[in-house]
Design goal:
Elements: E1 10-16, H1 36-43, E2 46-48, E3 51-52, H2 58-67, H3 71-74, H4 90-96, E4 100-105, E5 119-122, H5 134-142, E6 150-155, H6 159-163, E7 175-176, E8 187-191, H7 199-215, E9 223-228, H8 240-243, H9 291-321, E10 328-334, H10 355-358, E11 362-365, E12 374-376, E13 380-381, H11 384-392, E14 417-422, E15 433-438, E16 441-446, E17 452-455, H12 473-489
Parallel strand pairs: 1-9, 1-10, 2-12, 3-13, 4-5, 4-9
Antiparallel strand pairs: 2-11, 6-7, 6-8, 10-11, 14-15, 15-16, 16-17
Helix pairs in contact: 1-9, 2-11, 7-9
C-alpha cells in the first residue's frame, strides 16, 4: 500500500480498559507494572503525562471517546442508560471523508456496536464476552488452540452478580471458563492455556490479519483501525510467563492502603466486593485481607497489564513490518484507571475520583509529524482523542465539542485547568461529582458529601484533605470558581451550587 507524500494518514487507536497506572511503583518499595511495548512506542512520539479520563465509568467515557463531548452533553452518564446517538461520532465522519473503518474489540459505548458506525470487523453490543463468539471459536480452530481456561486464586463475590446468576463456577481453587453473556469477573488467577487463547491475543491476531490485507490494497484508501482490548480490566488472568515477571514479596505496601478514610467522602468508602465488605456496599476498615494476599493480587494485576502490553506490541510490530508506519497516526491509551489497593484497599473502582482512577496513560506517534521522545505535560483528557483523530484526517466535528486536538504545537495556548465529572454506576443511586485540576491542585465536589482538595505535588496519594482546613479556604474558593468557569464554557452545564454551596455559605467540609 503505497501513498503519496500528501495522502491522508492511516489512523490506529489502541485502547485498553481499566488500567492500574497512577501511583503504582512511584513510592519507596513500590513495583511498577512492566510495559516495555508501550514505553518503546511512546519513545517514537509523544507521551502525555498529565492525562485524565473525562469520567471513571466505562460507558460514558467510551462515548466521550467517540464524540469528544462531556457525558452531561452526550447524555450517557451511566454505564447502561444507553440513550440514542444524537451527536456526531468521529467514525462516521471519517467514513464520510473516505476512510475505511475497521474495529476489533470491546464496544460498551451505548446502544448498538461499531458496525452501526461505518465499521467492519469484530464488535458486540454492550460489554460483551469475546470467548463465547463464533469469531473466537473460528480463531481457535485456525490456530489449533483450546478455549481459554483459568485457575482461580481470588474470587471476590458481589451481591448483584450473585443474585443475577452471573459467573457460575467462579470459585477459588477451581478451574474456570467464562461462558456468560459478558466478562468482567471480580477475580484473579492463572490462564493455564497458551497466552494466544486470551482475548488480547485473539484481538491482536484479528488486527494483524486486517493490516496484512490493507497493506495489499492498491486503492490508496486511508484506513482507521480501532483495537479495543477488554483488559487489563478484571479478571486478572495472566499466563505464567507474565506472572513470573513479578515477585509478590517485593511489592511494598501501597501508600494509601491503610487510609482510614476519616476525612474522605462517603462515595470513596463504597465497595461491592466481598470479603472486602460485609454488607456488599461499604469497604471494611481496616482491610480484612492481609497485605501478603494483596501482594499476590497486585502481582496478578501487574502481570495482566504486561500481557496486554505484549499483545498491543504485536500490532505495533506488524505496522512497522508492513511499512505502514510511514504515514500512520497511532494512539495508545486507556479509558480510565483502577482503584486497586488504594484508599483502604479497594478491589474495584467506583464513581469516586481519586487519581488512581482518573489518571491514564496516553501516547501518540506519527512519523515526521510528532517529535520522537517528547514528554508533553499539557492537561489532556478523553475528549481530546477524537478531536485529534479528526484533525489528523484533515477535518473536524461539525459542531463545537469539549475536546481539542493534541496535534497543536505545545508552545501554543492550551487549557490551564481541566474539569472531569462522574454520575455513578446508576444502579438505583445517582452520585454526581465534578473535579477540577489546576497546577498542583485538585478540587472535587460531590453531591451531599464532603468536598476534597489536594496538593498533588506534596501529597500525590491524596491523604491530606485541605478542604477541611481553615487555612485553605481561599484556595478552595479559587478552585470552586475555576470549576464554575468550566461549567459555563462546557455545553449544557450543571450549576455547581447544586453540588456544593459557595465558599461564603460554608461548603460541605
Amino acid at each position: 500500500m503505497k501513498k503519496s507524500k500528501d495522502a491522508k494518514p492511516n489512523i490506529i487507536f489502541i485502547l485498553q480498559d481499566h488500567q492500574a497506572y497512577y501511583g503504582h511503583g512511584d513510592y519507596e518499595g513500590g513495583v511498577k507494572p512492566l510495559r516495555p511495548c508501550f514505553e518503546a512506542f511512546a519513545e517514537t512520539g509523544a507521551e502525555f503525562v498529565q492525562t485524565r479520563c473525562v469520567t471513571p465509568m466505562c460507558g460514558p467515557a467510551r462515548r466521550s471517546l467517540l464524540t469528544g463531548l462531556y457525558p452531561h452533553t452526550h447524555a450517557q452518564v451511566h454505564n447502561e442508560n444507553d440513550p440514542p446517538y444524537d451527536h456526531e461520532v468521529y467514525l462516521d465522519t471519517l467514513a464520510e471523508h473516505g476512510y475505511h473503518n475497521l474495529y476489533f474489540g470491546k464496544w460498551h459505548a451505548g446502544p448498538g456496536s461499531a458496525s452501526e458506525h461505518s465499521c467492519e470487523g469484530f464488535s458486540r453490543t454492550s460489554y460483551g464476552n469475546p470467548y463465547v463468539t463464533e469469531e473466537y471459536q473460528a480463531y481457535l480452530k485456525r490456530h489449533n488452540l483450546p478455549p481459554a481456561r483459568h485457575a482461580i486464586d481470588f474470587a471476590f463475590t458481589t451481591d448483584s452478580y450473585s443474585k443475577q446468576g452471573y459467573f457460575p463456577g467462579l470459585e477459588e481453587g477451581a478451574e474456570y471458563q467464562c461462558k456468560d453473556a459478558w466478562c468482567g469477573e471480580h477475580a484473579a488467577g492463572l490462564t493455564v492455556t497458551p497466552k494466544e487463547t486470551h482475548e488480547a491475543f485473539f484481538l491482536a491476531s484479528l488486527a494483524c490479519d486486517a493490516l496484512e490485507q490493507v497493506a495489499k490494497d492498491d486503492s490508496h484508501q486511508p484506513f482507521c483501525m480501532n483495537l479495543h482490548f477488554w483488559g487489563p480490566h478484571q479478571p486478572f488472568f495472566p499466563t505464567q510467563e507474565f506472572l513470573d515477571l513479578y515477585d509478590p514479596s517485593q511489592i511494598g505496601r501501597y501508600p494509601s492502603f491503610d487510609d482510614p478514610l476519616t476525612d474522605q467522602p462517603q462515595v470513596l468508602k463504597t465497595e461491592v466486593s466481598r470479603p472486602l465488605t460485609e454488607d456488599g456496599k461499604t469497604l471494611c476498615s481496616p482491610n480484612p485481607m492481609a497485605w501478603e494476599r494483596w501482594q499476590h493480587l497486585l502481582a496478578y494485576c501487574y502481570a495482566h497489564i504486561s500481557m496486554i502490553d505484549a499483545a498491543g506490541g504485536k500490532v505495533i510490530d506488524k505496522v512497522r513490518e508492513l511499512g505502514l508506519d510511514e504515514n500512520t497516526l497511532i494512539i495508545w491509551g486507556t479509558d480510565h484507571g483502577d482503584a486497586l489497593a488504594c484508599h483502604g484497599g479497594h478491589f474495584d473502582k467506583d464513581s469516586h475520583m481519586v487519581e488512581e482512577v482518573m489518571r491514564i496513560p496516553l501516547a501518540i506517534s506519527w512519523k515526521n509529524h510528532i517529535k520522537a521522545g517528547t514528554l508533553d505535560d499539557r492537561l489532556a483528557f478523553t475528549c481530546d482523542i477524537p478531536a485529534t483523530i479528526l484533525a489528523a484526517a484533515g477535518t473536524a466535528f461539525g459542531k463545537r465539542v469539549d475536546g481539542k486536538s493534541l496535534l497543536t504545537d505545545a508552545s501554543e495556548p492550551w487549557r490551564t485547568s481541566l474539569m472531569c465529572e462522574s454520575y455513578g454506576h446508576g444502579y438505583g443511586v445517582t452520585i454526581r461529582s465534578r473535579m477540577v485540576v489546576k497546577g498542583p491542585y485538585k478540587y472535587v465536589a460531590t453531591e451531599d458529601d464532603l468536598e476534597q482538595l489536594y496538593d498533588l505535588q506534596s501529597d500525590p496519594y491524596e491523604l491530606d484533605n485541605l478542604a477541611l482546613k481553615p487555612s485553605c479556604q481561599d484556595l478552595k474558593k479559587a478552585m470552586q470558581e475555576e470549576m464554575r468557569l468550566h461549567q459555563q464554557l462546557s455545553l449544557d452545564p450543571v450549576i455547581l451550587d447544586e453540588l456544593v454551596p459557595s465558599a461564603e455559605e460554608g461548603g460541605r467540609s
